[in-house]
Amino acid sequence: MSSTDLSINLNKIALIRNSRDTDYPSITAHAQHCIDAGADGITVHPRPDQRHIRCSDCFELAEMLTVEFNMEGNPFAPAMKSTQQNVADYPGFITLVREIKPAQCTLVPDTNQQLTSDHGFDLHHSADALNPIIEELQGLGIRVSLFMVPEPAQLQLAKELGVDRIELYTGPYARAIEHKLNIEEVFQQFYHAAEIARDLGLGLNAGHDLNLKNLARFASIPDLLEVSIGHAMTVDAIEMGLATAIQAYQQCLGK
Q1: The pLDDT value given to residue 100
Q2: Could you tell me if 45 and 79 are in contact, meaning their C-beta atoms sit under 8 angstroms apart?
Q3: What pLDDT score was predicted for residue 86?
Q4: Residues labelled as active-site residues
Q5: What is the residue range of 173's domain?
Q6: Phi and psi, residue 140, nearest 5°
Q7: Gap between the Cα atoms of 144 and 162, Å rounded
Q8: What does R_g of the chain's alpha carbons equal in angstroms?
Q9: CA distance 173 to 211
Q10: How far apart are CA 230 and CA 211, in angstroms?
Q11: Checking CA distances to 118, which of 147, 171, 229, 249 falls within 20 to 30 Å?
């Protein structure tokens, strides 16, 4: 079984920074702390309103990171004027990715109005529009992952689109664990999706509401290459210390 990478999402750290007119905490310094403590990658999700990660953060991270850089976002997000003083305009997600060329780009069907990402792509409706974007990003040497729900038919469509990986939206799994409802049934949906992804030759990532209470079970899913964790990691870092929290998550991943 392959090792699962831990990618730390820095959006919540940026949200804390943005609550004051300051550059503290430094996003790049926090990223380095994560790397020093054993993180395998760094994830950001720059939304058009730049309410947490800003475009400038993405460029600064790209300059200093020594681990994999994963940028998440809506591929159809257009350019948007900034309403914040001293914050550059948002150029559009794909324009930003073109300039930065991260190792991985995770395409997510969210909008500015959403509190957080809460569903995967429905490729019955989105495949034609996604196809040229995926081809362009891969042509730039960027690994492309699609945010998906664990539905076999959708995974088959992802394979037909030629994406490199899928990221399973794990919100339903986290809720099942939290509320102790249909845990085994929900877990088996994800386990079966992972088997299908493997058989199709799709790399497998996962993320959303994974934490120290539910990650170890989820990490038993076969061929899980990467998990992206931000909200829970930030809370646990406050309670445990950053290095201790990262070590605890890596232990959940069997490392």
Answers
A1: 98
A2: no
A3: 87
A4: 45, 72, 208
A5: 5-252
A6: -85, 0
A7: 9
A8: 17
A9: 11
A10: 9
A11: 249
Alpha helix positions (H), the chain: 11-18, 27-36, 55-64, 93-100, 123-139, 152-161, 171-179, 183-200, 215-218, 231-240, 242-252
DSSP element (H, E) containing 70: strand 68-73
Burial of 95 by CB count in 10 Å (0-12 exposed, 13-18 middle, 19+ buried)?
A: middle
The amino acid at 165: R
At residue 189, the 3 state secondary structure works out as helix
Query: Tokens in use for 115?
Result: 């509190």
**Residues across the chain:** 255
**162 is written with which tokens?**
């030629």
Separation between Cα atoms, residue 212 and residue 215, nearest integer Å: 6
pTM score of the predicted model: 0.95
Tell me which residue has tokens 């200093």.
Answer: 64
Count how many domains the chain has.
Answer: 1
Mean pLDDT by 10 residues, the chain (255 residues): 89 97 96 98 96 97 98 95 91 98 96 63 96 98 97 97 98 97 98 98 97 98 97 98 98 97
207: its two tokens: 């993320």
Distance (Å, whole) CA 11 – CA 117: 12
- The rounded distance, in Å, linking the Cα atoms of 249 and 216 is 8
CB-CB neighbours of 184 under 10 Å: 9
DSSP string for 209-236:
S--TTTHHHHTTSTTEEEEEE-HHHHHH
CATH code where residue 19 lies: 3.20.20.70
